[in-house]
TrEMBL record:
<dbReference type="InterPro" id="IPR003526">
    <property type="entry name" value="MECDP_synthase"/>
</dbReference>
<dbReference type="Pfam" id="PF02542">
    <property type="entry name" value="YgbB"/>
</dbReference>
<keyword id="KW-0511">Multifunctional enzyme</keyword>
<dbReference type="GO" id="GO:0016114">
    <property type="term" value="P:terpenoid biosynthetic process"/>
</dbReference>
<feature type="site" description="Transition state stabilizer">
    <location>
        <position position="17"/>
    </location>
</feature>
<comment type="pathway">
    <text>Isoprenoid biosynthesis; isopentenyl diphosphate biosynthesis via DXP pathway; isopentenyl diphosphate from 1-deoxy-D-xylulose 5-phosphate: step 2/6.</text>
</comment>
<dbReference type="Pfam" id="PF01128">
    <property type="entry name" value="IspD"/>
</dbReference>
<comment type="similarity">
    <text>In the N-terminal section; belongs to the IspD/TarI cytidylyltransferase family. IspD subfamily.</text>
</comment>
<comment type="pathway">
    <text>Isoprenoid biosynthesis; isopentenyl diphosphate biosynthesis via DXP pathway; isopentenyl diphosphate from 1-deoxy-D-xylulose 5-phosphate: step 4/6.</text>
</comment>
<keyword id="KW-0548">Nucleotidyltransferase</keyword>
<feature type="binding site">
    <location>
        <begin position="370"/>
        <end position="373"/>
    </location>
    <ligand>
        <name>4-CDP-2-C-methyl-D-erythritol 2-phosphate</name>
    </ligand>
</feature>
<dbReference type="InterPro" id="IPR001228">
    <property type="entry name" value="IspD"/>
</dbReference>
<comment type="function">
    <text>Bifunctional enzyme that catalyzes the formation of 4-diphosphocytidyl-2-C-methyl-D-erythritol from CTP and 2-C-methyl-D-erythritol 4-phosphate (MEP) (IspD), and catalyzes the conversion of 4-diphosphocytidyl-2-C-methyl-D-erythritol 2-phosphate (CDP-ME2P) to 2-C-methyl-D-erythritol 2,4-cyclodiphosphate (ME-CPP) with a corresponding release of cytidine 5-monophosphate (CMP) (IspF).</text>
</comment>
<dbReference type="InterPro" id="IPR029044">
    <property type="entry name" value="Nucleotide-diphossugar_trans"/>
</dbReference>
<keyword id="KW-0808">Transferase</keyword>
<feature type="binding site">
    <location>
        <begin position="294"/>
        <end position="296"/>
    </location>
    <ligand>
        <name>4-CDP-2-C-methyl-D-erythritol 2-phosphate</name>
    </ligand>
</feature>
<feature type="binding site">
    <location>
        <position position="248"/>
    </location>
    <ligand>
        <name>a divalent metal cation</name>
    </ligand>
</feature>
Amino acid sequence: MADSVAAILVAAGRGERAGHSTEGPKQYRTVGGRAVLAHALALFQSHPRIETIVLVIHADDRALCERALGPEAARVHLVTGGAERQLSVRRGLEFLRASGRPPGIVLIHDAVRPFVDHATIDRVIAAAIAHGGAVPAVAIADTIKRATSDLSVAETVPRSGLYGAQTPQGFHFEAIVGAHDAAAGSGRSDFTDDASIAEWAGTRVVLVEGAAGNVKLTTREDIAAADERLKEKLPVIDVRTGNGYDVHRLVPGDHVTLCGVRIAHDQALDGHSDADVGLHALTDALLATCGAGDIGDHFPPSDPQWRGAASHVFVEKAVEIVAAKGGRIMNADISLICEAPKIAPHREAMRQAIATMTGLTLDRVSVKATTNETIGFVGRREGIAAIATASVVYGEVK
Ligand code: MG
């Protein structure tokens, strides 16, 4: 098919400038959690136009390659390269020619460019179809100097019209095969990219817009920078924790209400509402997660409408305020501090009540109790205290 597209990824180099590594040549170095060439390969494998991928590797690297790619190695054609890049490309082209289904267009890419993007690949394919050869390129931004061997500047080269050539470079398959054959036939092996071979052979090559980020990893520093760039960015979750504390005085009476549960007792909690210290502490904890003040701000004791109020209304209002701010309550934990009554027999009813008023599942609701070892105002049965903690997620921080 005239417009069928194959890709050759060239990964046979030794990469000496990147320094020695136990992981092998730089195309096998791990950046962002996987091998450099695995990143590059994934971008070609996920491109909808590319039907066939040939990966040209060094004869010594087959085990390295299979380890780096895992099961993906079975989805590409592994071809052994030659001593120079030009020969490695030629081996890949010969593989495609011999495959019985040579493509219309071939893209040739350096596997040490892991940041290639689909838009660049699209531009190269379109221009290669239209013109015969296409190279992604970026205008040179630096002023260019030509220097002598002792680094004396010999001249400043006008940079207008100068571009840096990237890969993938795309060609009519027959044209680039013919160019490589001709170059080999005339003993030329000094070309630094495939476009220069095509140009030498008379194929028209046009430039298309490259991408500044489509860098070639050459040095140790390039690999470190690529690792930073490709590291998986874990989302930062906006989890907030609020706490609340409350105390009410015990007076003579016949019951207390704690965490929404009425418990017969020989004392009562004194307060404007039902004086449920557990739910008051929880209300404050919830309000605290979005800076919404405290229970006194929303339900002033001076307001007669809260006289004798059941305290679940305070929790429910705090739940509403949290929801309006985009919060999702994750858990609620309340500690009751009292000498009496005994909390344990009522604990499950308390958890159920809190689950109902907060919308939490039971496993996210905790009620605990402790005495104050008979010391202090709690120990003297003058009052009951409660501490509450709530966690609320307010979405993702970008
Ligand atoms: Mg209170």
